[in-house]
Amino acid sequence: MARERTWDPDVPAPSWFERSLATPMETARIDVDGTSVSYLAWGARGAPTLVLVHGGAAHAHWWAPLAPLLADHFRVLALDLSGHGDSDRRDVYSVTTWADEVLAVAGDGGGSGRPVVVGHSMGGFVTIATAALHGTELDGAVVIDAPVRRPDPETMEGVSGGMFRAPKVYRDLTEGMQHFHLVPPQPCENGWLVAHIARHSLREVEGGVTWKFDPGVFTRRTGPNRPSEYGPLLSRAACRVAIVNGADSTIVSDDMRAYMAELLADSPAAVAGVPFVEVPEAQHHVLLDQPLALVTALRAVFGSWRPVGAPPVSVRPPSD
Q1: pLDDT single digits (tens) 231-273
Q2: Between 3.40.50.1820, 3.90.1150.10, 3.40.47.10, 3.40.190.290, what CATH number should domain 15-150+215-303 receive?
């Protein structure tokens, strides 16, 4: 049975969205461990660096409408993780390699200082790994609706490739977009925003168009790839950390929020304080449900990290 589409592409877009997409944007590529990684950039060169990381099977253009709203004070960079978007594919994927890609883009993107990294869903796991493995090189990390789960030996969990079968080929962009669905599925009132990411989720191939992402990002993985494996990494975060969730998320439970708070209470990040923010009227896909509220939440987090008159906070590295 075909899944019913839960978004309306004919809903008119608001003016802020049109202005954002009209904002000048740069494209660039960088080689990371033998693989070409694509990224987008907004804002003035030399401004503080902000790196935005998409979720699984997604791409940098998920962030394109929001990035210009953060570019007044940042050099904003949104990358396509390898195996996603316009980046090349790898034989094997790992969250540690994706963390290396985040740092490489941050260093190549024309910004200044230690970067702030913001990641959604699977990109939140990448952000956690970056904060744990390279936290002393970051100014801060924001994790958006990533379900860090308590270890439970009785629960069989994992990242299933079953939802991402070999991609079909569609006749043209219009037909392909008609088959775009959010994963995990949820309704979204902002059809103009979903249509934007659907359009950038497809690439031309012989006979038509198909999805850009490599299904192997879910099936050819090494290292942590289960939600319960990210707790130890989160507890090692060696930079400032903030947690942002959709208030109505069905992916991140109250127990997961409590578990993350427990982990961070004893982490190196605790010295700086760890804000937990819930975005009202947002499910898992916070970027699509409440884009302006998410921008406001991020601006508030960044502002809290730089209060007027307060001395800088030094986050101690984790001890082995």
Answers
A1: 999 999 999 999 999 999 999 999 999 999 999 998 888 877 8
A2: 3.40.50.1820
Using a 10 angstrom Cβ sphere, with 0-12 exposed, 13-18 middle and 19 or more buried, the burial of residue 222 is exposed
Burial annotation 240-255 (CB, 10 A radius, 16+ → b, else e) = bbbbbbbebbebbeee
Phi then psi for residue 174, to 5 deg, are -60, -45
Structure tokens at 303: 């502002």
Q: What's the pTM?
A: 0.93
Q: Taking each helix axis from N to C terminus, what angle separates 122-134 and 95-108, rounded to the nearest 10 degrees?
A: 80
Task: Supply 167's token pair.
Answer: 């991609």
Q: Which residues contact 319 (CB under 8 A, 6 or more apart)?
A: none
Cβ atoms within 10 Å of 72's Cβ, excluding its own: 11
How does pLDDT run across 288-313, given as a tens digit for each residue?
A: 999 999 999 999 999 999 765 555 55
CA angle 298/301/305 to nearest 5° reads 140
For residues 258 and 246, give the distance between their C-alpha atoms in angstroms, rounded to a whole number: 15
Neighbours of 49 (CB within 10 A): 24
Please, how many CA atoms are within 13 Å of residue 233, restricted to the half-sphere of its CB? Answer: 28
